[in-house]
Write a structure and sequence with these properties.
EC number: 2.7.4.1
Oligomer: single chain
CATH superfamily of the largest domain: Endonuclease Chain A
Structural class: alpha/beta
Distance between the termini: 51 Å
CATH class of the largest domain: Alpha Beta
CATH topology of the largest domain: Endonuclease, Chain A
Enzyme class: transferase
Family: Belongs to the polyphosphate kinase 1 (PPK1) family.
Pfam family, one: PP_kinase
Number of helices: 19
InterPro entries: PP_kinase, PP_kinase_C_1, PP_kinase_middle, PP_kinase_middle_dom_sf, PPK_C_dom2, PPK_N_dom, PPK_N_dom_sf
């Protein structure tokens, strides 16, 4: 692993090199309460997800899917953000009161808000989504709702498929309280010894490798399909597990643990070994949330609280079933009539073959002009994947260099790199094995790459390599030519179907030389000081953006046209927010399109009157990042960086400037549509409240941005055949 030092001022105008912002001074004269709290803003984001689950205009299986997403999101929030705050408070580490960190009191605010949202989440399932599913022929039932023939069938199923893998664990002086793994469902069971009359406690872990919902119907082609939660089926057969004992009571509970990883990186230590050691420790992180069914008795709850060493604030009483993340299974049921209409992405117009059944020459297309691809509206398979597969098979390609943050083990991207290495090409894969919750998967397929002869680099000390880059070196007409791809999303074919992302393909020599130098720095010890068309973190991306923001401020003060438009996942960096406030005070119109966290307060008189903030959630996860500056003389960048401390200070990030007027117009039109009052979206108020605008004054639904973009993409015409 190498150290790193990025200096890349040359990617922006040199006429203002005297601009040298000092972090922390931008807020002089601005109110102390100018930021929204980061954690509460994240909970507001998850509330927006919940509002989609509550929307009865959406197909019911999609609503179930949004309930599952809400649950999965909240699990990760507790495992990482809440766990990190709790650890800092317990260990006495400094906890600043800015939007990047929260004081001890914010844990109470988080708990209050999370309790409200989890109860609302459960109500959405029980009062709305579950009944609507039943009306559509999909029911989640309890044992008491089934007849004798159903009981017989399920008892046989239990005996054959479930009973052998269960392990009841007693708790008594000879058997200490068992370890409860994070996110596992568990049954607490109280039994009485029929001989001695003594009561005992036992725990049964609900096996995670079994289906979360067991199909009840054993008849062929039933009109109504029924499912029973696995824990309910187990609870009806406790007598089989505690033969000779009287089962008094049972309840379901679930524990969330601290699963954040902190690696003490040492250049003298093997990073993989250090990470694998921390992955083992992750399993035993301290509990930070206990979910129990609302009918749990006080005696059992007191035992769990004492043994898990948690506070009453960390206990969540909820109606069963717990862990509605299991609804992902129901959402996968093959009922197209209960889902969004099926969509097939189009091939990007520049990558369509000249004949309907022909094969496109991607290198020829990219050599003619830059190509901007928009996933999932345009196909990942016929663009990014095809680009790498053609590179692997092309005898004129000498080398491929690529960053990999998250992908799948059976990914065609990985296979293409392996094929290229086996064909004798020089292949470099910069693998970020510290990608949270994908660490073990990344280690496994990185080793697969190494075995095939790929040069694998495991990132940089103290930094995550988050940028999305691919560089192909091709021999053409006696010289080498660079073909580059810079994207906003991961090289993952699976997530590309549901994540909205942009990717630029270019044969521009400036970009190719920039990436060549950047890869040398990432894999070796070079210290590059100049990039022509890139803005690179960690050292100078923030500075470059601050220059661009300040340029708009000065234009507005001089009475010239100005404007700033930003699309990101999250914006919490204080220096960026303060610069935007300064620009707004000068009269710069500012539009911010954010999916998740926003620490900026829009529309505050005298501070942010010209700033509008919108959020769009829907079928696809809005994931691209766009940074647009200026009026007629527009500068637009895309890349992988959000406006967060981790992206700007602790990650290698890259933004690339778009220069083709078609691409400037396309990104501008996207933001126009997102910010239009006629588009369905959430609007952020100065107090942190997000208000949904989904219907017009007549009750008619507003424009769905994602539907609109899919329709526009589908209307693009195939180029005429070249003869």
């Amino acid at each position: 692993m190498a150290s790193i030092d990025f200096v890349n001022d040359s990617a922006i105008d040199r006429d203002d090199d005297d601009f040298d912002p000092v972090m922390g001074d931008e807020g002089a004269g601005l109110p102390d309460d100018r930021y929204l709290d980061r954690e509460i803003s994240w909970l507001a984001f998850n509330q927006r997800v919940l509002e989609l689950a509550e929307d009865d205009t959406l197909p019911v299986l999609e609503r179930a899917n949004f309930l599952a997403i809400f649950s999965s999101n909240l699990d990760e929030f507790f495992m990482v953000r809440v766990a990190g705050l709790r650890r800092r408070i317990v260990t006495g580490l400094a906890v600043p009161t800015n939007i990047g960190r929260a004081p001890a009191g914010v844990l109470e605010d988080i708990s209050t808000r999370a309790h409200e949202l989890q109860k609302r989440h459960a109500e959405a399932w029980h009062r709305d989504v579950e009944p609507k599913l039943a009306e559509a022929g999909i029911s989640v039932v309890s044992w008491d709702q089934l007849d004798a023939s159903d009981h017989e069938y399920l008892s046989d199923y239990f005996a054959a498929q479930i009973f052998p893998v269960l392990t009841p664990l007693a708790v008594d002086p000879a058997h200490p309280f068992p370890y409860i793994s994070g996110l596992s469902l568990n049954l607490s069971v109280r039994v009485r010894n029929t001989r001695t009359g003594r009561q005992e406690f036992a725990r049964i872990k609900v096996p995670q490798m079994l289906p979360r919902f067991i199909r009840v119907d054993h008849r062929e082609s039933p009109v109504h399909v029924r499912y029973i939660p696995l824990e309910d089926l187990i609870s009806q057969h406790l007598d089989d597990l505690f033969a000779g004992m009287e089962v008094i009571d049972h309840h379901v509970f679930r524990v969330t643990r601290n699963e954040d990883i902190e690696i003490e990186e040492d250049e003298s230590e093997n990073l993989i070994q250090a990470l694998e050691r921390e992955l083992l420790r992750r399993r035993f992180g301290p509990p930070i949330r206990l979910e129990v069914t609302e009918d749990m008795d006080d005696q059992t709850l007191e035992l769990l609280v004492r043994e898990l060493d948690i506070t009453a604030q960390e206990v969540y009483r909820l109606p069963g079933p717990l862990d509605l993340g299991g609804l992902f299974e129901l959402a996968s049921i093959d009922r197209p009539d209960l889902k969004y209409p099926r969509r097939v992405p189009n091939t990007a117009i520049d990558f369509r073959p000249p004949e309907p059944n022909g094969k496109a020459d991607l290198f020829g297309a990219i050599s003619r002009r830059d190509v901007l691809v928009h996933h999932p509206y345009e196909s990942f398979a016929t663009s990014v994947q095809e680009f790498l597969e053609q590179a692997a098979a092309d005898p004129n390609v000498l080398a491929i260099k690529q960053t990999l943050y998250r992908t799948s083990g059976d990914s065609p991207i990985v296979e293409a790199l392996i094929d290229a290495a086996e064909a004798g090409k020089q292949v470099l894969a910069l693998v970020e094995i510290k990608a949270r919750f994908d660490e073990q998967n990344n280690i496994e397929w990185a080793r697969k790459l190494e075995k095939a002869g790929v040069h694998v680099v495991y990132g940089l000390v103290g930094l995550k390599t988050h940028c999305k880059l691919a560089l192909v070196i091709r021999h053409e007409n006696g010289q080498l030519r660079h073909y580059s791809h810079i994207g906003t999303g991961n090289y993952n074919p699976k997530t590309s179907r549901v994540y909205e992302d942009l990717g630029l393909f270019t044969a521009d020599a400036e970009v190719g030389n920039d990436l060549t130098r950047l890869f040398n720095e990432l894999s070796g010890y070079a210290i590059e000081k100049k990039f022509k068309r890139l803005l690179v973190a960690p050292l100078h991306l923030r500075k470059g953006l601050l220059k661009l923001i300040d340029k708009e401020r000065r234009a507005a003060e001089a009475g010239k046209p100005s404007g700033i438009r930003i699309k990101v996942n999250s914006i919490v960096d204080e220096a960026i927010i303060d610069a935007l406030y300064r620009a707004s005070q000068a009269g710069v119109p500012i539009d911010i399109w954010v999916r998740g966290i926003c620490g900026l307060k829009p529309g505050v008189p005298g501070m942010s009157e010209t700033i509008r903030v919108r959020s769009i959630l829907g079928r696809y996860l809005e994931h691209s990042r766009i940074f647009s500056f200026g009026g007629p003389d527009k500068r637009v960048y895309i890349g992988s960086a959000d406006m967060m401390h981790r992206n700007l200070d602790r990650r290698v990030e890259v933004l690339v400037q778009l220069r083709d007027q078609r691409h400037l117009d396309e990104t501008d039109a996207m933001i126009d549509l997102a910010m239009d009052d006629g588009t369905s979206s959430w609007w952020l108020e100065a107090d942190g409240t997000w208000t949904r605008h989904a219907f017009d004054a007549d009750g008619e639904p507003l424009v769905d941005l994602q539907d609109k973009l899919m329709a526009l993409t589908s209307q693009r015409r195939r180029p005429r055949s070249r003869r």
